[in-house]
Amino acid sequence: MKVFVSLDAGAIAVGAERVAKAIAAEAKRRNLEITLVRNGTRGMFWLEPLVEVATPAGRIGYGPVAPADVASLFDAGFLEGGPHPLCVGLVEEVPFFKRQTRLVFARCGLADPFSLDDYRALGGLRGLERAIALGPEEIVAEVKRSGLRGRGGAGFPTGVKWETAARAAGTKKYIVCNADEGDSGTFADRVLMEGDPFTLIEGMAIAGIGVGATQGYIYVRSEYPHAVRSMSKAIDIARNAGLLGPQVVGSKHSFDIEVRVGAGAYICGEETSMLESLEGKRGQVRAKPPLPVLSGLFGKPTVINNLLSLASVLFILSEGAQAYADFGWGKSRGTMPIQLAGNVKQGGIFECAFGITLGELVYEVGGGTANGRTVRAVQAGGPLGAYFPPALFDTQYDYEAFAARDGLIGHGGIVVFDDTVDLARMARFAMEFCAHESCGKCTPCRIGSTRGVETIDRIIAGRAIEKNVVLVRDLCETLKFGSLCALGGLVPYPVLSALKYFPEDFGMAVRPAAAVQEVR
Amino acid sequence: MSLTNGGAPRRVAFNEALARKIIDAELGREGPLLPILHALQQEFGCIPSEAEPLIATMLNVTRAEVHGVVSFYHDFRRAPAGRHVLQLCRAEACQSMGAEGASRRLLEKLGLDWGGTTPDGNITVEPVYCLGLCATAPSAMVDGEPRGRMNAAQLDALVAELAAGEKR
Question: Exposure check for chain B: N or C terminus, fewer CB within 10 A?
């Protein structure tokens, strides 16, 4: 009898470890033989800790389970899928799950993440095997044809990046996986590293063979200790099984991977800053050119891809570029693992083809706010993404549609806020965060962010509001056009969108002064 | 792979021979400085100032370069933290679930500012900007162990646990 309890940090954070222990102890007490599998998460965090049992009809879930519920689960015959108030039925029939198109997360949550046999049985390594059969040129061509664009936020075509690196002259080339997932409201990288780490290893090996790189680095943030341990363990297993090393799966290609841990600097998610950090320096951004694909890590041609881009490549290679491009909308092809977070009833990972609307995501998939209050705003795309009011919830989820409304999809995070949110304070926070995380290289970001905090403070205090709003807008202009990288360049998005759609929070008209006072 | 964020902080007094050994073990890597600093902090609970010239010599870089790196990254400490490190997330997703109010209340109760340590040296409270637990906010990390749905009452219970020395 197989029982599944997730080992994901998000599940552990709400008690999965204690639930797993309670199940093992209760089974022993009742003299029942069970196999307790620690799987990745299904990504439905409002149900965590989720306990699943394998039945002939499929996997039946119970959640959220507290250790105190365990005895009653046994009493209810949960090992056979018996009825219980916490039963959610067949896990894959839960509407949140059923509505998804899981290409990147196809395997996550199904099995023990460290079992290579399970990985292979669930379709793993097919992409890599076909890639080896196709050879480098065809790998790059296939990724180019798929229309895959960078999932870190910039949306640059992955195939074009690979092609440039493949053609670059160099004795040694690198693949760097950006797993420095610092945006609030995003956790897809973490969940994949903990729940299906071989997928990333396979994606990086495909990239390595495609561009002729022999060494890969996965740069993971130190805030993700579970993901670091998971990736390190999976790499050891893969190396021992011959998936990595001088002959990748018995081919003539050599490729190996090392995990590198960040040190609490958000800016290191910026690609050139990440290279500096990998080289053992302060994480200060580099001016481009030279582009990292031509002169990157240690001056060698380097492909830096977001984790989700690398993980998307498996399907493209195993099923073909066209099958991937058939999903999606406009210039945004394929699927995106969207992350619903914050004050949302059903938060988690929702992977779907581009084209779904923001409103569908927030209300239908997410079920509105966690506390039942009215949704007032969402921030899409992390701390540098715009705040959208419900009036813009008809925005389709794709790179261009968000850009057309002065927003960005970023790494796929959507943070929901209820009607108690004060957008002036959130705008202030955006500037404060920029000041905290600025690498200090450019003046607008280093100093402008602090001046931004001070100016918004004056607005919040009700001092010369109109005049100070003009100053903030002017400062945002300077930041947008005067910064080397996206930190200073994008921090105007949350600030200006807050000003545009929620002027009353800044004490500008709309709301009567007394009501504004009350909200503060 | 050593991890600064991987468990209860240690407080071993600086010892040059041990530091040399730790640095030496990482020298085979490309760009080994961050792995070295993580490994040293894992052992000593901070980057002792005596370690900087030693690293500089062993990597053949200037002491200023080493110091520049140590001071750039938020993770590296100049002095050891309290026996327990409680990181509270201050990022947007946690704010949407009332994290700021709950954190402020806790800091006031403990009489601390962000980064402060209780007078008995038991708990250091630090801000963190996202732990990737954004669907079960507010989030916290205590000695490398993740905690979700940490409202004010849960935080009080956690701190009481740490004070009683009976960490789950």
Answer: C
Phi first, then psi, for residue A244 (nearest 5°) are -125, 160
Residue of B nearest to A278 (CA): B31
Q: Which residue among A184, A265, A281 sits closest to B91, beta carbon to beta carbon?
A: A184
Domains detected in chain B: 16-72 (no CATH), 84-164 (3.40.30.10)
Per-chain mean pLDDT for chain A: 96
Q: Report d(CA A338, CA A166) in Å as an integer.
A: 30
CA dist., res. A244 & res. A236, Å (int) = 9
Looking at this protein, which amino acid is placed at residue A505? Answer: D
Contact B6 A264 (CB under 8 A): no
Which domains does chain A possess? 2-98 (3.40.30.10), 116-325 (3.40.50.11540), 329-418 (3.10.20.600), 423-519 (1.20.1440.230)
Task: Look up the ipTM and state it.
Answer: 0.94
- The pLDDT tens digits of the residues spanning A215-268 come to 999 999 999 999 999 999 999 999 999 999 999 999 999 999 999 999 999 999
CA distances from A187 to A4, A31, B134, B140 (A): 21, 39, 7, 15
CA distances from A452 to A388, A432, A491, A503 (A): 21, 8, 10, 17
A520 CB within 8 Å of a chain B CB: no
CA A58 to mean position of chain CA atoms: 28
Per-residue pLDDT tens digits of chain B, which is 168 residues long:
445 554 555 668 899 999 999 999 999 999 999 999 999 999 999 999 999 999 999 999 999 999 999 999 999 999 999 999 999 999 999 999 999 999 999 999 999 999 999 999 999 999 999 999 999 999 999 999 999 999 999 999 999 999 987 444
**Chain B contacts in chain A segment 445-504 (CB below 8 A):** none
Q: What's the predicted TM-score (pTM) here?
A: 0.96
Contact A263/B at CB under 8 A: yes
Q: Which residues contact A318 (CB under 8 A, 6 or more apart)?
A: A123, A126, A127, A130
CA–CA distance, A105 with A307 (Å, rounded to integer): 12
> CA of A12 to nearest chain B CA: how many angstroms apart?
7
Closest CA to A215 of A180, A244, A183: A244
DSSP letters spanning A223-291: T-HHHHHHHHHHHHHHHHTTSSBSSGGGSS--BEEEEEE--S-GGGGSHHHHHHHHTTS--PPPPSSSP
**The two structure tokens encoding residue A328:** 């999606």
Contact A415 B96 (CB under 8 A): yes
B101 — contact with chain A (CB < 8 Å)?
no
CB < 8 Å from B in window 177-206 of A: 181-187, 189-190
pLDDT 10s digits, A91-104 = 999 999 999 999 99
A64 interfacial to chain B (CB closer than 8 Å): no
For A392, which DSSP code? G
Rounded Cα distance, A162 and A208, in Å: 9
Amino acid at B148: G
Task: Specify the pLDDT at position A187.
Answer: 98
